[in-house]
Specification:
Distance between the termini: 94 Å
Order of helices and strands: HHEEEHEEEEE
CATH architecture of the largest domain: Beta Complex
Number of helices: 3
Number of domains: 2
Structural class: alpha+beta
Oligomer: single chain
Strand content: 35-45%
Largest sheet: 5 strands, mixed
Radius of gyration: 30 Å
C-alpha cells in the first residue's frame, strides 16, 4: 500500500478520530487551567459523622466487687469513614469506655475516655466537658 493510500484510506474516520482527540485534549487543558479537581472515588472518599450521646462504660477487673459510675455518663464522638461504611454503621458499633482494670482502691479519679471503632472507621474526636470523665465508687447500680 502506497503512502497516499495509507492517509486517504478511511479518511473520514481518521479525521473524526483526530478531531475528537484534539477536542478532548483542549477540554482537559481548559479544566486544568480552571483548577478542576476530580472527586475522590467512593472507596477513598471519607465523611465525618457525629454520634452525640454515646454511653461511657466503666471496665473494671472481673474480680473487683465494687460498682463504679462515670460522670458525665455520655460523650459526643465524631468518626470518619467511607460513605459505604457509614451506611452500615450504628451507634451500637461505637464503644466509649474507661478502663479501671489495673486500678486498685479507687474512690474518685479523672480518667481518659477510650473509644473502640470497627475496622475502616477512624476516630476524629471525643467531646466531653470536662475533657476527662470522673470515675467514682458507687453505692449501687
Amino acid at each position: 500500500m502506497a503512502v497516499p493510500d495509507l492517509i486517504l484510506n478511511n479518511f473520514r474516520w481518521k479525521a473524526g478520530a483526530l478531531t475528537m482527540a484534539v477536542f478532548i485534549w483542549f477540554l482537559i487543558q481548559f479544566a486544568i487551567s480552571k483548577g478542576y479537581r476530580p472527586r475522590e472515588t467512593p472507596l477513598t472518599d471519607t465523611r465525618d459523622h457525629t454520634f452525640p450521646d454515646v454511653s461511657v462504660l466503666v471496665l473494671a477487673a472481673p474480680d473487683d466487687p465494687q460498682v463504679f459510675r462515670a460522670t458525665p455518663a455520655k460523650v459526643e464522638i465524631t468518626i470518619r469513614a467511607t460513605p459505604l461504611a457509614l451506611n452500615q454503621l450504628t451507634q451500637d458499633d461505637i464503644r466509649a469506655f474507661v478502663d479501671l482494670s489495673e486500678t486498685t482502691n479507687l474512690v474518685s479519679e479523672l480518667k481518659d475516655v477510650l473509644v473502640r471503632t470497627p475496622n475502616g472507621v477512624d476516630l476524629t474526636s471525643i467531646r466531653v466537658k470536662p475533657p476527662s470523665v470522673k470515675v467514682e465508687r458507687s453505692n449501687g447500680p
